[in-house]
């Protein structure tokens, strides 16, 4: 199973559309995980038209139209790996332990908000992933997203940079 993991797309404020490189990944993915801050309903609707499956949540910048359609926390079993998705997890310090207590029944927590790529594990084994942002890098050197392959309950994750020429 192939996954695309994105967050903080902030459309159309930070970009008019997702980069072509991300749309190519949407077309290849069995599921797209989006951890919030879509910012407009059209971005969700466009993704729904192309993606095979979406697991998404709303973020702090998402208004009523998105909050009516998306949960604050989403959960899914994908290829034998238990995922939870949320936008905000609080400060970086203590994040792993705090999230392990909040999500004791999942293998992977995907989050956003910071625009900072993140891939760590809590002592409990919970893996925390933040794909950064493909459209609003803030103080990061690159716009980013993640892909993952899930097979037999194993997860292989890759962080990708948006290539400006694509």
TrEMBL record:
Cofactors: a divalent metal cation
Any Pfam family hit: Metallophos_2
Key words of the record: Metal-binding
Residue ranges annotated for the Calcineurin-like phosphoesterase domain, each copy included: 1-152
GO molecular function terms noted in the UniProt entry: hydrolase activity; metal ion binding
UniProt enzyme class: hydrolase
EC number: 3.1.4.-
Protein family (similarity comment): Belongs to the metallophosphoesterase superfamily. YfcE family.
Name of protein: Phosphoesterase
Phylogenetic classification of the source organism: Bacteria, Bacillati, Actinomycetota, Actinomycetes, Streptosporangiales
């Amino acid at each position: 199973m192939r996954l695309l993991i994105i967050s903080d797309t902030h459309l159309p404020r930070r970009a008019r559309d997702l980069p072509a490189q991300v749309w190519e990944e949407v077309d290849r993915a069995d599921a797209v995980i989006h951890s919030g801050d879509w910012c407009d309903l059209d971005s969700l609707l466009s993704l729904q038209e192309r993606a095979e499956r979406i697991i998404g949540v709303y973020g702090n910048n998402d208004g009523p139209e998105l909050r009516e359609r998306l949960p604050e926390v989403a959960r899914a079993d994908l290829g034998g790996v238990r995922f939870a998705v949320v936008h905000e997890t609080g400060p970086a310090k203590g994040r792993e332990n705090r999230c392990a207590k909040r999500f004791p029944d999942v293998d992977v927590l995907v989050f956003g908000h910071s625009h900072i790529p993140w891939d760590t594990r809590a002592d409990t084994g919970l893996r925390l992933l933040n794909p950064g942002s493909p459209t609003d890098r803030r103080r990061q050197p690159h716009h980013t997203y993640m892909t993952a392959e899930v097979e037999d309950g194993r997860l292989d994750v890759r962080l990708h940079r948006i290539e400006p020429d694509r």
